[in-house]
Amino acid sequence: QGLPTFQFSALYYTPKDFQGAYNVTGNKPGYNVTVAVVDAYGDPEIYQDLKAFDKMFGLPPINLTVIPVGPYHPIYGVLTGWATETALDVEIVHAMAPYAKVDLVVASNNGPALFKAIDLIVSEDLAQVVSMSWGAPENLYSASGFYAVVDGVPIPNYPYLDYYFMLGAAEGISFFAASGDEGAYGGTLTTYGGVLFPSSSPFVTAVGGTSLYVNVTSGYLSSYNSTVTYGYETAWSVNPWYAGIGTSTVSSTGGYSTFFPAPWYQIPITHSKFRTTPDVAADANPYTGGVIIVDGQEEVIGGTSMATPLWAGAIADVDSYLGESLGLVNPLLYEIYENKTLYSEAFHPVTFGYNGKYSANSSYNLVTGLGSPNVGGLEEAISYMLSHVTHLDISVSTFEAGVTYPWYMYGSTFTVAAYISTQGGRTVTNGSFNAYIYTLDGFLAKVPLTFNGTYWVGNFTISPGNPPNVWSIVVNGTAYNETGVGAVDVDVGESVNILTPVGDFLPIDEPITVEVCIYYPNGTPVTSQTFTAYFIQNGVSYANVTLLPTTTPGLYKGVTAFLPPTPQGTYILVINNTYGSAYTYDYVGGVIEGLVFTPINDGLPSADPGQNVTIFGLAIGSNGLGIFTSNMTAYIYNPDNRLVASVPMVPAPDVPQFGIIDAFLFHEANFTIPSNFTPGFYTVVIEANVPTSVGTEVANFTTSFYVGSSTLTAEVRGVTTAYEGQNLVVTANVTYPNGTEVKYGEFSLTLLPSQFSFASLIVELDTYVPMQYDSKLNEWVGVFTVPSVLNDYTGYSYFYEGANPYELSGPWNLVITGVSAGGHNVYYSTFLNVMPYTYLGNLVVNAKNISAVPLMAFNGTTYFLDNVYVNSLKVSGVGGIVLEDSIVGELDAYNSTVVVENSKVIQVNAVDSNLTFIQDTLGGKNVALSLTSSTAKLISSVIEDSSYAFNISNSVVTQEGVSEVNVVNESTLPEPTVTYVSPVNVTTATSTVTVNITGEKLKVTSVKVDGSPVSYFISTTSGGVSVSVPFNASKLPDGLYTIEVTVSDGLSYTLYANFYNSYHEVVTSGQISSLHG
C-alpha cells in the first residue's frame, strides 16, 4: 500500500473520559483525602490554569495549596519544562479525585530538594497519597549509601529516600511514582539498571503506561463532551519515531531493580531475587493522552507522568470510599491479583505490548505490571480484603546504638525490633516470629525473634563478605492462628560515589580517569582501603583499574584506556571492595543518533508486509567527526531475536524528502517489509564504523517497531461537498481483511488541502480530530469544522490563517489514518469539494444585532454580507442589507429591505418587505417566493425546481429578464384567463367590447387596442373582472383588432382578445342591397 508521505494519528481524553474509563464512582470522589503532588520549581500559572481547567471540564473548584520547599521561583518551572509537568500532575489528580484536597509540594530544584520535599511530607504527615511523576535510572545514580559525598558535602542518596518512603508507609501514606517513559533501557544504553528510582523502592507503587481505548456512549471525544466506558488497553509500546542517542525505546519502563531485593509481596509472583517494576499501569501513551491546561493553553500530554497521578487519584478515591488511608497498597494489590474473582473486578489486565526488552502478557509483567484500575471494583475488592482477611499487624524497625539512620557498617550488630498486634489492637506476646534478611544475592539469613515485654527483637552482626547496600528485612510468623508480615530496608557498607565517568561516551586509545569519593556511614572519609574499578561487558571484566587515594581525603583515582582489540560498546563500571560497592554504565566508541519512520506516526508505529520503513542514523566519533565517512548498516531482528535483514545505509541528500524531511547529515535506508515477516515487534540495530585519528570506533543504536499481518480497509460514503466553517460528521467503515469491524484503535480524521498532500504529516499533526467507534452504526465517527475565515485557528494552526474564502475552497483530501489496538494500520483518502462560502448556520438579523453578525460589513448606510452559506436567514426590521455571492436555504424578511445579488436562495418568504433579486437563482422548494404585503423585483434571474414560482398576497412582483426552469406553475393563484369577448364582430357605428377575465385578486393596470392605450371601464365579476372598451367603429377601418389587457394579482399578466370591425362592410352591404331592392 503506497502512501504519498508519512501520516499522523492520535487520540485525546478529558477528565470525564478518564473517570468513565476507569470507573470512578461516588458522589464526591476523593472527598476528605489529601493528595500531595511533588514537583520541582513549580508553575507560576497553576492557580489560573486550574481555574480554566475546572471551568472547561465542569469540575468542582480545586482545593489547592502550594507548599514551597526552599526558595520558590516558579519562573524556573517555565524555563525548565517543570511547569508543564506540574500542571499535568495536579490536573490529572484533580480529574480522578475531584473532591480531594491537593497539596502541591514544590522543591527548589530537581535534585536533592525533591528528597527534602518527601522528608517534609512524611515528617509533617501532610497527605494520605503522594504522586511523584519523576525519577532517574538506577544506573545513573552511581552511588551507594544513605548519602553520596562530593567534595566533603553529603547529598541524600536513594537509601535515604527509601527510608522516608518506609516511614511514610508506616504512617499510612501511599506513594506513587512513574516507572519511566523510555522502556526497558530507561533512556540509557543498557537495560541493567534501566528502571527508575524512586519507583523501584519497595515502599512505592511503580506506575507503568498503557494505551487506552474507550467505548463512547454519548458525545464526541473531539468536542470534549463525551461520556465513555472502558474499552481496551495495550501496553504503551516502543515508538521508533522518537530520536535517541544509542537507544530509542520510548514506552512504559519496567524491569529488574539493581538497588532493591524482591519485596515480600512480589516473591510469590515474580520468583525473582530483585524488585521488579512496574506494579500497575494506566494510560500514558501521548498518542492517547489527556487534555490539560498549561500557561493558559490546551495541551495533549502523556507519559507515566500522567499514569502516576491517575493512580494517585484512584487510590485517593479508594481512601475516601473506605474512610481510612491504606498506606503501602502494594501488598493488597498483589493479594487481589492472586484472587481471580477480585482481580477481574478490580483490574484490567493488559496483555499486548513491548518496551524494548519485555513483553506484556496475561500475567504480571514488566511492562504494565498488574494492569490498570477499575476504581469502583478496586474499592469493593479492597473493602472485602480488609473486612474478610484477618492478619496480624507487624511494624518493624532496626537500630544500633549511636546510629541515626538504618545505615550500618561491616562488623557492627544491629537489632531488629517488631511490634506485633492483632487487628483489634491486642499486643502479641506469644507465637513464632523470625526476621528474614534478603539482599540482591537472595536470601541471606534468618534471625529468630523473642518477646522482650514490648517488642519482638533479634540481633544480627554484619560480616565481611556479606553483600553491601540495601537489605530487606522481612518479619513474619504466627500467633493465635493468624499470620502477619512487616518489612524494613537497611543499608549496609560504605558510601561509594562514582564521580566520573558516569553514563559517558568514552574514546578508544585515550586515557580515561576513574574518580570515586568514598566515606564511612559515620561521615568520615575512607583513606586507606584498596578499591578496584571493573569495566564489565557480557560478564567479562576487560579493565581492572586500581584506585589509589589522593591528597583529598576520601577521593580515589585511577587511569585506564581501551586499546584495540578491546571490545567497544556498553560497559558496566563497578567500584567494589569488601566494604562497599557502586556502579554505573559507560559506552566505549562512537555515537549514533537514530530513529525509524513507519508509514504512520501514531501510538503503535507499525508496518505491514509490502510497506516501507525508513531508517535514519547519524554517527559521530569521539573526535566529533565521521558523519560522512562512517560505514553504517541496519540489522533487523525478528521477535525471536533472529537476524532477518541487513540493510546498507547511505548518506542522505541535502534536499527535502517525503515532502518535508531534510535528513542531511544522516545516513538513511528504506526497507520494504517482506511478505514472510510474521507479526510481532522487530528490533532495529544500527551499527557504524567511525574512522578516527586513533582507530575505528564502533557505534550502535537500538529501537523497535511492530510488523502487522495486513493493512486495514477504510471507506467513507456520502460526503462529497462541504462549506467553509461547516461542521461535518463523517462516518467510516474500518475493517480487518476478513471483513470484521475494527472496534478499538487510534484513528484520526484530517481535512487536508490537496496541494498540501506532500506535508500531510505536519498538517495532520496540527489539525487532526480523533475518531470514535459507534457500536450502533458499526462505524467510526469523526466530527470536524471545515476551515474558514471565521476559524480561531486553535485547531488549524497557521496553515489557513489569513486565507480568503476562495483560497480555502476547492478540492481537499478527507484523510483517515491510524492503527488498530493490535497494530494493523490504515490510510484512506477521498476528495471533498469545499465550496467558497462561509457556513453561518442559522442567522437571525435585526436592527439590534446586525453589527455583531459574523462577516457583516457596513458602508455607512447599508449592510453587506457576502460569500456565506446560511441555512436559514431571518431578517427583521433592517432598513438595508445586501447579500452577495452567497447561498441561502431560506430567506425570511420581515419589515425589511433586502437586495440579493449573484446568489442562490432556495426559498423566499417576505412580509411587509421590499426585495430585489439581481442575477440570482431562486427556488428548490414547493414555492420559490412567498410574498405578503411586499414588493419584489427580479432582474436577470432564474427560478427553478419548484412547483410554484410565487405565492403572493397583496404584493407586487416585477420581473426583467427572468426565466424559469422546471417550474410547474407560475403562482399558487390561478393564472388569469380570458373567458369571454363580446361582441366578437362589431357592426354598429359605436360599440363597447367586453372582455371577461377569470382570476383572483386581479387588478387591471392597462388596456390597449392594437398597441395603443385606450379608455376602459372595469367591473368585478364572481370569477374575476370585466373590462369594457368603448369602440368607435365608424371612425376606424374594418379588420381584426386585438385588445391587450394587463392585469396583476401580484404578478403581471398580459392577456389578449380579438374582435372584428365589420361596420363599414355592413354599411356598404346595406347600401348595395338597397340598390338592388
UniProtKB/TrEMBL annotation:
Gene3D superfamilies: Peptidase S8/S53 domain
GO molecular function: serine-type endopeptidase activity; tripeptidyl-peptidase activity
Keywords: Hydrolase, Protease, Serine protease
Record-linked SUPFAM superfamilies: Subtilisin-like
Domain named Peptidase S53: residues: 12-385
Gene Ontology biological process terms in this record: proteolysis
Descriptive protein name: Peptidase S53 domain-containing protein
Organism: Candidatus Aramenus sulfurataquae
